[in-house]
Specification:
Layout (H helix, E strand, L loop, with lengths): L1 H8 L15 H26 L1 H20 L9 H23 L4 H11 L4 H13 L16 H14 L13 H15 L6 H29 L7 H11 L6 H10 L2 H18 L5 H16 L7 H13 L1 H5 L4 H28 L14 H18 L7 H22 L10 H27 L8 H15 L14 H7 L7 H11 L4 E4 L7 H14 L5 H17 L4 H12 L5 E5 L4 H8 L6 E4 L6
Parallel strand pairs: 1-2, 2-3
Helix pairs in contact: 2-3, 2-4, 2-9, 3-4, 3-12, 3-13, 4-8, 5-10, 6-9, 6-21, 7-8, 8-9, 9-10, 9-12, 9-19, 10-20, 12-13, 12-14, 12-19, 13-14, 13-16, 14-18, 17-18, 17-19, 18-19, 19-20, 22-23, 23-24, 24-25
Length: 626
């Protein structure tokens, strides 16, 4: 209870003595509140004309795209990019309120139908929020360390680059997929504005953890709505139950545990956008022109998030344009100009941002395999389930299911073929990084789509589904079977995300290691551990070297030592002879003033013999942060 009181009263201190600060949560709450205030009135206005299935993804897509496009301009202005984003959200909320007052209220029938679909799908998001709050008050919880594995350092580096440029820079050496970094940069910019003694790395890590949590919660809602979207008419309770169960899918190891283990934040961003593409396509028959515009906008965001999957909204857009070509040709004015402007923006960003960086960085796309399991067999099972269910529903629902599945599968095939072609010179291109990651991401998309088709097929016929319990059991059984860990990398133990966070199963020592990292980053110099009792020495040194300048400031010696030693320690579980040589090279570097923290009183003498010429300072038995 004392920890909870301290956390509420002084959030900059965290809630327990072994935790790093969680200062960024007020900034995160402010942004979430403003985003909801901005989107809610526009969802009401758009739902009245298009229905909630299209309105919700349309409004959120427009809001995110507006901020991204604004960040392309802020580098040429002196105004802080976070302040610009706040003003933009506030203006959007104010104009939205005016628009609601002039448009008239949404019909009661439409509001009730939307509530039965969208509100139950918030169950997964609520559960994740509870887990995150509990992680900050439970003694063994992991409030920060869970989000610090793998590519987290790279994501923070790209976000800090945007902060340094005060927006998104364009050029051959720039980040070709800046959406994720931009989502981090906006709250970082606001958090850094406030005068505080909190170490900047602690702020960055807190922002990272809360931003990732927000995207996971969005995935929960989107996946729940997708699973329940095809439930037969009149089955409101069944729709609510299946939506609630579907919203729990992102809290499984397969959807969220795996990306957390390797720090793949962009996976959830891409998944949320792909789920939105499917929902927009389902609503496209009613309002083809707005749906086509939203698909183009989603294509822009996916182009700037994880480029290979941009073919999915493009394929959906082609199907919508062909199916409704006569109606689209009859449109005039704003209804015609909007998709055309969006298409021009898509082509412009492809030409100015994606294409130049692709040709400049093409060699990096042929990376070897690591991280993602082989999901090819799972993909076949999901595709078979989806196709069989589509065949059953094709003539029973007024939804373009067959064209949609055809577009999704063809786009997936083309995207996979392109990544396999890029990795063609590797020893085993089927386990290469980008093909394996893309196959996993498409499986994560196909899982709720296949579940929704199966549930729709069950509920369309009263003889096949006599109760909500039967449908819920079927949904849960399919989801559980699909989430069984298959084809895992060697020496890898899957953990459910909630278990990892609530029990502190992040690295070996969880937030204790994160506290040491924050303390080392706050020393003002280069601090590292060697021969301590910490079982997380390698990952602590990795972050300490990065924070001292290895990644953010381009100090080559620190960056090389961080990555090489981290890989070596993970492979062997200790310091090899090569590790000692690299440590000596670092300590001899005149541009690096290092402090070595150890629990071995003989280490200074050993290093004096091994590393002649070193001027490092040694501290015995006093690891910072513990």
């Amino acid at each position: 209870m004392r920890g909870i009181i301290d956390w509420v009263a002084r959030p900059e201190l965290g809630c327990a003595t072994h935790r790093p600060p969680v200062y960024a949560w007020p900034v995160s709450i402010l942004l979430v509140v403003l985003a909801l205030a901005c989107s809610a009135p526009w969802v009401v206005v758009a739902s009245r004309r298009w229905g909630a299935l299209l309105a919700v993804p349309a409004v959120i897509t427009a809001m995110v795209l507006a901020i991204i496009l604004t960040l392309l301009v802020t580098p040429f202005t002196p105004v802080n990019l976070g302040v610009v984003a706040l003003v933009e959200l506030a203006l959007g909320a104010a104009i939205g309120v005016v628009a609601v007052s002039r448009s008239g209220a949404i019909t009661r029938r439409g509001a009730v139908a939307a509530a039965w679909l969208w509100l139950p799908a918030t169950l997964g998001a609520f559960c994740w929020l509870v887990v995150r709050v509990l992680s900050m008050v439970l003694p063994d919880g992991s409030s920060i360390a869970w989000a610090m594995s793998g590519d987290t350092a790279n994501n923070l580096y790209f976000a800090r680059t945007i902060l340094g440029d005060n927006g998104i820079a364009i050029g051959a050496e720039s980040n070709p997929v800046p959406v994720v970094a931009s989502a981090l940069a906006v709250p970082l910019a606001l958090a850094h504005l406030s005068p505080s003694s909190t170490p900047s790395l602690a702020i960055d890590l807190s922002v990272f953890a809360w931003t990732w949590s927000a995207v996971i919660m969005i995935c929960c809602v989107a996946m729940g709505v997708v699973v329940a979207s095809l439930v037969g008419p009149g089955r409101t309770v069944t729709r609510a139950v299946t939506g609630a169960i579907g919203s729990l899918l992102p809290l499984t190891w397969f959807i969220t545990g795996l990306p957390i283990d390797f720090g793949y934040l962009n996976a959830h961003f891409a998944l949320a956008l792909l789920l939105a593409c499917w929902l927009v396509f389902l609503a496209s028959d009613r309002t083809p022109a707005p749906a086509l515009t939203v698909l183009v906008a989603l294509a822009i965001l996916l182009l700037l998030t994880w480029t290979p999957v941009v073919l999915v909204p493009v394929a959906f857009g082609v199907v919508v344009a062909v199916r409704h070509r006569r109606a689209l040709l009859r449109t005039r004015g704003v209804a015609l100009a909007t998709p055309l402007v969006a298409a021009v923006a898509f082509l412009g960003l492809t030409a100015t941002l994606t294409a130049p960086t692709y040709f400049a960085q093409a060699d990096e796309l042929a990376a070897g395999g690591h991280g993602y399991p082989a999901t090819w067999i799972l993909a076949i099972v999901l595709i078979g389930t989806a196709l069989l269910s589509t065949a059953w529903l094709r003539t029973r629902l007024a939804v373009p299911l067959f064209p949609g599945m055809s577009a999704l599968l063809l786009a997936s095939y083309a995207a996979l073929a392109s990544t396999l072609y890029v990795a063609r010179d590797l020893f085993d291109q089927w386990t290469a990084y980008y093909p394996a990651k893309l196959a996993w991401l498409l499986c994560a998309l196909l899982m709720p789509v296949a579940a929704s088709l199966l549930v729709g097929a069950l509920t369309i016929n009263r003889g096949l589904a006599r109760s909500t319990l039967a449908v819920a059991t079927a949904t849960l059984a399919v989801a559980t079977a699909a989430c069984v860990p298959l084809g895992l990398p060697d020496n890898y133990t899957p953990l459910q995300p909630a278990d990892r966070i609530l029990t502190g199963e992040s690295w070996h020592t969880g937030d204790d290691a994160a506290r040491v990292i924050v303390a080392l980053a706050d020393t003002g110099g280069v601090g590292l551990l060697w021969d301590t009792r910490s079982t997380d020495e390698a990952v602590i040194n990795f972050w300490a070297m990065d924070a001292a300048g290895g990644h953010y400031k381009g100090v080559t010696a620190l960056r090389a030592f961080a990555f090489d030693e981290y890989r070596a320690y993970r492979a062997t579980g200790g310091h090899s002879a090569q590790s000692w040589n690299e440590l000596c090279a670092l300590l001899r570097n005149r541009s690096v003033s290092a402090t070595v923290y150890t629990d071995n009183p003989e280490l200074q003498r050993d290093l004096a013999e091994r590393c002649t010429g070193s001027e490092a300072r040694f501290v015995v038995g006093a690891t910072p942060g513990l």
